[in-house]
Design brief:
Number of helices: 8
Structural class: alpha+beta
Radius of gyration: 17 Å
CATH architecture: 3-Layer(aba) Sandwich
Order of helices and strands: EEHHHEHHHEHEEEEEH
Number of domains: 1
Strand content: 15-25%
CATH class: Alpha Beta
Number of strands: 9
Distance between the termini: 27 Å
Helix content: 25-40%
CATH superfamily: Thiolase/Chalcone synthase
Length: about 240
Amino acid sequence: MIAAITGVGWVSTETMGSGRRHQVLQSKDGELPKIVSRMVFGEVSPRFGRLDEYSKLGLAAIAFALKDAKQDQLNEKRTAGIIVSSIYGCLATDMEYFEQVIANGGNLASPNLFALTLPNIFLGEAAIRFGLTGPGFAVNGAEPGGTEGLKLALESMFLDENPMMIVGTSDPGCPPLFPYHVEMAAGALFFVLEKHPPDASLSYGGLDMTLRGDVLFNGVEIQSLASLFQGCLPHLIR
């Protein structure tokens, strides 16, 4: 079975957007942009404003990917799951929360921060906004790449559990003073995968998985979501 890639969205230190807006993902060392709801949804959203930077990053990339796949304006609920892979996740928010807990002797810690101390919170926000009723969970990987989440998404589709999956990575980078640093580019990159896309012209290509667990894009093995994106580039810039 082949899963079609119908949408690509990202936020990097250089650009943010989606594939069919003829933008090209560039990722260099530097700071991520300050994301506000108008950049993503074209309107002010108090719910978006209350999210931490990790959640804003991932939700923005998901929104761009769904827009690219023309799946962002549907009014009815649909079965679609979301999987995010992350190394650091919401660790910066966790640390900020516990700093308040310690400083106040366990009292008066921020309930707003507490609500964001799980790495899958923004997946629920995406599900509410876009009417997605499938599973949503985070995968913590020791290495950057996001292939663990991609394999789980493909398995779910191939087992007929979900006809559509949104899968990607979201990582704001290593929190300040955290001792375990992994060399990686901060940012978020998400793909929309559809088993039966309503419009074949939206497809960037097909994903398959071998019995050994290797992921193939248009018949070529890929090692990371970044390399998968590189495979989509000829379509993105046409």
